[in-house]
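Ticket opened by: R.M.
Priority: normal
Category: complex prediction / small molecule

The reporter submitted a protein together with LCS and asked that the result be attached to this ticket for the collaborator who will pick it up next week. Submitted input follows.
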Amino acid sequence: MDTKNLKFTSKLIHGGGYKSKLGEVNVPIYQSSTFEFESAEEGARCFNGESNGYIYTRLGNPTINVLERTVADLEKGFGGIATSSGMGAVSTIYMALLSKGDHMISSDAVYGPSRGLMEDHFSRFGVESTYVDTSNLEEIKKAIKPNTKVLYIETPANPTISITDLKACSEIAKKHNLLLVVDNTFSSPYLQRPIEFGADVVFHSITKFINGHADVVGGIIVVKEEALYKKIRSMMISMGCNMDPHQAYLVIRGLKTLSLRVERAQENAMKIANWLEKHTKVEWIKYPGLKSHPQHEIAKKQMDGFGSMISFGLKGGLEAGRVMMNNVKLAILAVSLGGVETLIEHPASMTHSKVSAEDKKKAGISDGLVRLAVGIEDVEDIIADLEQALSKVKLWIKDWKIED
Ligand code: LCS
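Result attached by the on-call engineer:
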């Protein structure tokens, strides 16, 4: 069946255009590293591109290709490239698009390892990078140099939830002949499709919303146009960071309920954000659905919903964060996001405990920042759990306890 004209959720169920020969309803796991050729001539045709028969799983595999076609279709791109992890997607993109002497502009609030890979490793090969607040377009324009080739943005960003204007960035990129790369992990294609706003390359940590069940690590790149798609695919194959067919099967299964999961989680997130905003122990909150979010209007323009990621700051900083983390019962104290379960983390005492105060400040991470990845549980249970954990946080001014 041609799925091109189906609506989003129907594509999740019937996507990828897999045609069964035996009548099975689910896409089988083609757990084979290699594929037999009918003849030497057919083998030659596969290798020279005249036939699209399968050769070897690092190059392509029927199960993986169903996932690639489905996500490419959801993101409205030419083709998809599944990778072994989100970071596999990041490294493939950097390797394919940047050469010695090139320069990349990225968000200062980008996912830490995406920045670390560039600053610690690609710099060894002569690739330069500059990190700016990409929610401020003037900062992007000021950072452009004659050797700038890529504008790389993450929106909403991890963990600050700051939002960058996709359409404005695509206009800047076109004007200066840059490729626009967007990490769309926090939104999923259900809420945001950056290619519609002019992005050239979009990618996801599939580990998060697309898979949705905290049981797979993976990534996927979607490319708008064929020539660039071929270039990036060939880099992924050479680097060997392909997905495994069994991993792809689990993701295809998880992806089927993406709309339902995201709808429910963001409905919960909106209620929790409204509750947290009024909480006496909460100093600030960043959720794109709240009018108080500095880029609320941009979020409304480019997202079909506000997602389920919330950052908030606790009065009482580091110690308050630690106490809250040690008292949650339903919310799971763990990194990652985008699954059916609510996860909570406190970067200052956990992921960023060894990061210098200056670097934390640059990344927008204050001591009281808590990141909440809202799941699909009953919202009353999530709020009750957060409330009991917050009730253990004592606020003090010098020697005086001011609040329970
Ligand atoms: N991009 C974003 C925005 C991410 O949040 C992550 C992982 C990645 C890329 C990398 O994907 P991975 O290789 O892990 O599949 N984010 C994580 C997080 O916030 N906590 O743990 C991992």
